[in-house]
Amino acid sequence: MASLLGFGRQADYREAQTEIPQKPVALPYELRNEMTWMDFSHPVNPLGSPKSMVQSMHSALVDGELSFAPDRDGHVLRSTIARMLGLEEGCVLTGASAFSMIRTASQAFQVGVVGVVAPAPPEYALAVENAGHECVELINPVSFATVDAYTARIEVGDLDGAILGNPTYPSSRLLARSTLIHYLETCNWVIVDESNIELSFGGESAVPLIERYPNLVVVRSPSTTFGMPGVPVSYLVADPGTVRQIRQFYDGSDITMFGEVLAKEFAAQQSFLEDTHEFLDKEIPWMQCMLSLVPGISIYPAEGNFVLCEFFPDKGLRLGVTCTEELVVRLQLAGFLVRALPNTPGLPSNEYFSVSVRMRDENQKLLDALKSIIG
Question: Is 0.90 surpassed by the pTM of this model?
Answer without folding.
Answer: no
